[in-house]
Amino acid sequence: MYLRRYKNEDLPELITLFKETVRSVNAKDYSLEEIKAWTYSRTDFSEWDQSLSEHYSFVAEENGVIVGFGDITLEGYLDRLFVHKDFQNKGVGTALCNLLEKQVNGPILTHASITAKNFFEKRGYRIIKEQKVVRNGVYLKNYVMQK
Question: For the chain, what are the domain ranges?
């Protein structure tokens, strides 16, 4: 596996990976209505590109194929961490998270999905609170977690 910095031309593949991962991996923890709201097809490419370009953002590749990505802000907010549905439980998320956490000093905060909660707990994150966020008019449960 090869880890590298995010490039603008990665964006379409990252958005596809995000949507496919949520629709398959997260489907065990969220309803179809919640999944549709989370992956609503009108993704704002320019907004994603801006935040990924401003954050510490990394991509994981396996044989030239993007298998995961993640980003963290300068202040320590771990914004996104997604692993391709076919590369779950193969160390991709761990490798990306290790690299992301090294980019900042101090506490790290994330909003973890139901699906990702156990991954972050095993890394030493603790739940600050459970919350419901609105995505396209639908409430989704997640967890504010800190390390």
Answer: 2-109
